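To the team - iron/sulfur cluster complex, inputs and output below.
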Amino acid sequence: MAKKMHPVQIARRISLGIVLVGLTILTILHQKMQGIPSIDALDPFGGLETLMKFLAGGEFIKKIEPGNIVLFGAVVALGLVLSRFFCGWFCAFGALQGVFGWIGQKIYKKRFVVPAKIDKVLRWLKYPVLAAIIYFTWTTASLVIRPYDPLAAFGHLSVGFPDLWTEFAVGFVLLILILIGSMFYDRVFCKYICPLGAVNAILSRVPLFRIKRVESTCISCFKCDRVCPMNVEVSTVQAVNSPECIACMECVTACPTKEPSLVASLAGKAVNLWTPIIIGLAIYIGAALIGQATNMLRFVAPKLTDLASKGTINVADIKGSSTYAEVAAAFGIETERLYRELGLDMKKVPETTKLKDTAALAGIEGFETDTVRFAVAKILGIPYAGESAATNTAAKPSEPSAAPQAQEQQASPAAKPAAAAFTVPADFVLEGTMTIQDVAKALSVSTQQVIQKLGLPADIPVDKPLRDMKDQYGYTMTTLKDKIKQ
Ligand code: SF4
Ligand code: SF4
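Output:
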């Protein structure tokens, strides 16, 4: 007869199940409905990345929302109080590995363990991964790990294989490898690669929460060692100090002695096993509630038309999931006028099209949601400095355009929504390693403005380093450096 599961483990599986199922549903809905955040906006690690970018350049990363910072704050608070409790109780990717681990156990009837010598070396890998991500986030303007992120690939499975492969080929391959690996070894990604696990492992050095072993009652049955998914040797220590411990409590709930041989302790004092669990749930759920109350953490973004009716709409509120009809209605613009400004053909790009699908439908590479924001700002005659700038001005759709007739006459083609003229700071240096997106971010303008300024063809990829496209597009870095300064 199967052994009854301890209530703590039932609670943990419910917690992980809710996070995994909830995240999966949101990522599917994101592809189908407007206003549902992407997986990028739900990943706590994005909070660290965008904070790094903010500290380095005073701006947040595209695709990252304030909600990431709330979630990352919750992970840090959890890490300081309860070590890697987040990994054991709230991580969707940990849960996914657990599901595949369970499948593997059903098939092979056993768990495999990486030899201790190799395991010890591999565990250090997650720290250089974390350092590399922080470095590249600091020095670039993009969500640098996105194409390689297996969780991001998982969150985009519903876009279909061709799009998934185009955007997340590496992340998808990693995802498959990790899930196959999880069928043999517990939590391979958490142990060896996860940068958020590395952050939590560092935070776990604050010794507030620990599992302690009572030597006088321990019968050295080694059950605790066998059930530990992180291969911590519990049976030989007085207190579990390992940065690998994810506070899953599997060892505690598996310990067979009548008088407990493993106890949870907080600040050195033994506590009921449920105490750290309740504190952990309170911290994470509390942070989510505070995020909701302050509007920083959103699971459903308000519709553009709702924002318009409240008079709080802003050009920056336009999302890739908005449709042209919604944008036009919310900002009080005629759809035809918007299409003319963007140079789009309504037959190719119907007004029910989501902005993010424009590039594929119209065949305009580099067409971004910001292109539409610039176009709307231009039609309304209001300033808009670009996605990364903090100076976006609220648009009042009821207000007429400052000079509609003049703007009508100036209407320009789609991929050129705003004039290329902009001021380039004297100390700005155009590097061959920069992409057009990097330049646009650094100068707070659209990619189209950069393309125009540099005299490049409209279809040039905006996400490739400039030096890599010299031969294909026939320019030299010297000419580009001259043009950007003109
Ligand atoms: S030591 Fe115990 S609580 Fe920590 S990861 Fe291993 S089984 Fe879980
Ligand atoms: S499971 Fe309990 S009794 Fe067995 S070795 Fe671990 S602490 Fe000792």
